Amino acid sequence: MAMFVNQLKVMRTRKGLTQEEVAEKVGVSRQAVAKWEKGETMPDVESCICMADLYGVPLDVLARGLKAEDVTEEGKRLFGCVKMNDKGQITLPAAVRENFGLKPGSMILVLADTEKGIALVNMGDVPEDAFLPPRNDTEA
């Protein structure tokens, strides 16, 4: 149940919706949505179906949590959530590492769009200094 409760809030915030907006679209009170997100009560099946449609995910993704095999759109997958530690490091889920052939020493390019988010690109087995500016070895 904890995974489901977490999913409700994750999906809502990912869509940029308030509890009140979700309540209006699902046809329930804001208090009902708040209780669902706190795990105090559970939504009925019809409400779950409405929320899955609202969030654009299969009902399985909403009800079961984020899994590697849960595809939201062709070619797009949800692999789960990770927490960043105090050094700014994250651990990628095993399914991500397996699907993209990542292993210790794999070079990962980090791209960012301040409005859309962060993307990681597997650069494969690239030497660590491949992205450093060329050295000037000539002596003056």
Quick rundown:
The chain is built from six helices and four strands.
List keywords for this structure.
140 residues, alpha+beta, 434 Repressor (Amino-terminal Domain), Pemi-like Protein 1, Chain: D, 2 domains, two-stranded antiparallel ribbon, two-stranded antiparallel sheet, 6 helices, 38% helix, 14% strand, elongated
Compile the SSE list and pairings:
Elements: H1 2-14, H2 19-26, H3 30-38, H4 45-55, H5 59-64, E1 71-73, E2 76-77, H6 94-99, E3 107-113, E4 117-124
Antiparallel strand pairs: 1-2, 3-4
CATH architecture of the largest domain: Orthogonal Bundle
**What is the structural class?**
alpha+beta
Order of helices and strands: HHHHHEEHEE
Classify the helix fraction into a percent range: 25-40%
Kindly give the count of domains. Answer: 2
Strand order of the largest sheet: 1-2
Q: If you average the pLDDT, what whole number results?
A: 80
Shape label: elongated
Q: How would you name the CATH homologous superfamily of the largest domain?
A: lambda repressor-like DNA-binding domains
Rg over C-alpha atoms, rounded to the nearest angstrom = 20 Å
Please indicate the percent range of residues in DSSP E strands (runs of 2 or more).
Answer: 5-15%
Spatial separation of the terminal alpha carbons:
69 Å
Number of strands: 4
Low-confidence stretches: 66-72
CATH T-level topology of the largest domain: 434 Repressor (Amino-terminal Domain)
What is the CATH class designation of the largest domain? Mainly Alpha
Number of helices: 6
